[in-house]
Every structure is written in C-alpha cells, then in structure tokens.
Amino acid sequence: MIELAYARATDPSDAVRRADGENAKYLGGGTNLVDLMRETVEAPSLLVDVTGLSSEIEETDDGGLIIGAATRNTAVAEHPAVRAGYPMLTRAIVAGASAQIRNMATVGGNLLQRTRCTYFYDTDGSRCNKRSPGEGCDAIEGFNRYHAILGASPACVATHPSDMCVALAALDAVVHLRGTSGERTVALCDLHRLPEDRPDVETLLEPGELITAVELPASALAARSTYRKVRDRTSYAFALVSVAAALELDGDAIADVRLALGGVAPKPWRALRAEQALRGQPATEASFLQAADAELASARPLAGNAFKVDLARRTIAAVLGQLTEEARS
Ligand SMILES: Cc1cc2nc3c(=O)[nH]c(=O)nc-3n(C[C@H](O)[C@H](O)[C@H](O)COP(=O)(O)OP(=O)(O)OC[C@H]3O[C@@H](n4cnc5c(N)ncnc54)[C@H](O)[C@@H]3O)c2cc1C
Ligand code: SF4
Hints:
Order of helices and strands: EHEHEEEHHHHHHHEEHEEEEEHHH
Structural class: alpha+beta
Shape: globular
Strand order of the largest sheet: 4-5-8-6-7
Number of strands: 12
Bound molecules: flavin-adenine dinucleotide, iron/sulfur cluster
C-alpha cells in the first residue's frame, strides 16, 4: 500500500507552502492525475487540492479577461465574455473530452495534463523516455498515428493533448504563476518545452510552482475566431489535427491573423511562419495553402502519421477559408 496525504489549500500561498519540499502534486479536477496515479506513472505522497482557489473570470483594466486557475472548463466555455470575445476558446473546450469531464477539469489542470501516448501509460511492458529517462521510446518504431510531426526529438515524439491550450496559444494568453520565490508570468507559448533530450521535463515550471490564473489580452481579432478539430471519432477522441485561427481582412487582403495547431507537436504549436506568410497577402485558398506549406516545411512525419501533413495543410486552408467567408458576409 502506498501512503498518500491530502490537504486542501485555502489560498495560493498556503498551497505553495504545503507543497514546498514535499513529493507533492496539486490536485485540480483529478481527471488526468488520478488516472496517472492509478497507472503508477505518477506517485506523489501528498496531494494539495487547489480546487478551492480562484475560479473567477474577471475583466482586466485593458479589457481582457483573467481566469482563475481553478475555474472549471465548462464555466470558461460558457462564460458570455468568452463566447463573445474569444469564440475559438469556447469551441476548443467543447471539442474536448465529455461534458462530465469538462465539468470537473480545471484550467490549471488542463494546461498541465500529460500526453496520451499509450506507451507512456503502459508501465508494465513499454519503454518510454518521458516516464523513465534513458530507457528508449517504443512509439518511434511502434504505433504512432497520434504522434508528433513537428517539434519532436529522437527521444520523444508524443503530442500535447489539450484542445484548450491550442486556442490559448493563438490568443497570446499569459499564465500567472506563484512559487516560493514569488509571483511571475509566462506566455502560454513558452510554458511547455520541446522534448529535446529531456522529454520528462515538460514545462518551465519550477518545482512546486502553482498556476494561479490565465490572462487573455484584449483583442478585437479574437472575436472573429474559430477552432476546428479533426479526430477519429466525434467524442472522447484526442485531435489528429486541430486548428485555432483568427482573421482580419482589409478589403481582399489579410490584415492580421493568429494561427495555432494541435495534435501535431509536443506543445501547443503557434504557427508563426504561416502567420508571417499570410499578412498582407490576398485572402485566397492559394495564399492559405502556401502559408500552411511554410509552416509544415519542417514536419518530420513517422511511419504511421504521414497523413497528418496533408491533413494539417487542408485543415488550415479550410479554417481560414471559413473565416474569410464569415468576414465578408
Ligand atoms: C476520457 C478522457 C477524454 C479526454 N479528452 C480530451 C480531449 O479530447 N481534449 C482535451 O483537451 N482534453 C481531454 N481530456 C483531458 C482533460 O481535459 C484533462 O484531464 C483535464 O483538463 C485535466 O484537468 P484537471 O483539473 O482534472 O487536472 P488534474 O488531473 O487534477 O491535474 C493535471 C495536472 O495538473 C497539475 N495541476 C492541476 N492544477 C494545477 C495548478 N493550479 N497549478 C499547477 N499544477 C496544477 C496536477 O498536479 C497534474 O499534474 C480527456 C480526459 C479523459 C479522462
Ligand atoms: S513518444 Fe514520448 S511519451 Fe511516448 S513512448 Fe516515446 S518517450 Fe514515451
């Protein structure tokens, strides 16, 4: 029997103090962490429950939103200011998991959910560098339909599973953190690391650092945004490819654009090369495909997921085409 202690944090500093120096994990909705503990991938000796911390969604002074890390995914998706001002975020959240899981899952937990690579969960029979550094990776020569085509390394080819994070990457979200040495903020796009030779180190969080909130900057562009997820089944399935996009036209030309991809990389993938290729170009399918090609030029598909390159290309073009039609109507 493994001994496990439980404590319910009363505020962020209480949470950080309780976790300090312990083999502790923060507990959000538990929808990922409890599975990982059941599979013995994670073995904390203390759970610090942070579901009682801020679950408010408030307007910031500059007209953006700040969302407490304990806010349930459903509450974010349904909030009127999110639906009206950041529709891609609502769509990304409701594209994920099931209603019951979204009711439990918190913003902080969603950001730090771990990959769904099946070898990572198979503690009995599979080699996995993320779980046991230096052991090897059974996905590279194995079943890799769901794995990464961008940003992977010879050590790990897993994808980041979150839909919500893809929208947050496109929205330039900022993550608020609190640790033993104080508070800081990081861009969501910088929170998750690429695997390189340390796939077990997934974020730039310091040990015991707590996510306290996620901030969405004010953005007129974000109101004209969407999220599309392509998957094997319509529910309970993670993305093969997903696209979060926002578009602003100036006549027939693209004035501004935000683009991020899910299901293709070890982190939510901000498509900066595609964005750069699109600005100032005519809003046509040819421009969209050319921009997708610029982003996907560095793709390194595996035996089982080469289809993702063309799927991503076509999904980017389709989503940008849809936003263009909506902008013109
Ligand atoms: C059947 C199933 C299907 C799913 N399908 C999808 C899907 O299609 N798309 C998708 O995006 N997701 C999907 N999910 C994943 C789901 O979205 C995540 O499990 C959920 O978002 C995690 O949130 P949580 O609050 O339950 O996190 P927890 O499980 O409580 O925690 C996850 C991690 O975050 C850490 N943590 C939690 N809060 C904080 C904090 N404030 N600060 C620092 N660390 C923290 C925990 O210590 C843990 O390491 C699915 C899950 C299941 C079980
Ligand atoms: S892809 Fe990453 S998570 Fe999956 S088995 Fe390989 S090292 Fe582990």
